[in-house]
Specification:
Elements (H helix, E strand, L loop, with lengths): L4 H4 L8 H20 L5 H18 L10 H22 L4 H4 L7 H13 L1 H10 L4 H12 L4 H8 L3 H15 L3 H5 L2 H8 L1
Length: 195
């Protein structure tokens, strides 16, 4: 059975350079924002953004449209890429790993990365405060409230059921009730919509 172009989704990016370019252009800013909220080193942010798209190409054949949107799939890859980098950095204490690849970023790219990091500084600050939540609750809250995924797509990106995702989101919102984080993320409005 041949998949339609819509059903194939990201599956084509591994073999079709034009499809990859269109996919990249459509999603690169969202991935950059996602990474910039979690990483404050511009070189590392550039490397991780590139790693996300390399991983997307490598796993494109396994994309299943029934499991979520291309954006949810890509956010799942980005979360895994960032988590992998954090594990690697924890094992590698030498400075060689932090300096690696910096000479590959030219001055114009560095300026753009600094601008992106500056634009996401407030979001990084909120992200640091959100670390007080258990990781499973924080992950759902971020994907739904910050990254704008639907509950279905957030659950798929995390590899959990929708009921579990709803419970975790409810717990996270309850823990943040009345705080500055709550109003900054617009959780009061989101709670009203969810009711």
């Amino acid at each position: 059975m041949v998949k339609t172009e819509r059903e194939a989704g990201p599956a084509r990016i591994a073999s079709d350079p034009d499809a990859f370019e269109a996919f990249y252009r459509e999603h690169v800013e969202a991935v950059q924002r996602f990474v910039a909220r979690r990483v404050d080193d511009p070189y590392l942010a550039a490397d991780l953004t590139a790693d996300v798209f390399v991983a997307a190409i490598e796993s494109a054949g396994g994309y299943d449209a029934s499991r979520g949107s291309p954006a949810a799939w890509l956010y799942g890859i980005a979360r895994n890429t960032i988590a992998g980098e954090r594990r690697r950095a924890a094992r590698e204490l030498g400075t060689a790993g932090r300096v690696r690849g910096r000479e590959l970023v030219d001055a114009d790219d560095l300026v753009a990365i600094h601008e992106r990091l500056d634009a996401e500084a407030a979001a990084r600050s909120l992200h640091r405060e959100l670390r007080q939540l258990p990781p499973s609750e924080r992950a759902v809250l971020e994907l739904v409230s910050v990254d704008g995924l639907s509950m279905h797509d957030a659950a798929r990106a995390l590899g959990i059921g929708q009921v579990a995702a709803r419970v975790r989101l409810h717990r996270a919102r309850r823990a943040l009730r009345g705080g500055a984080i709550r109003s900054a993320l617009g959780l009061d409005e989101l709670t009203e919509v969810a009711r």
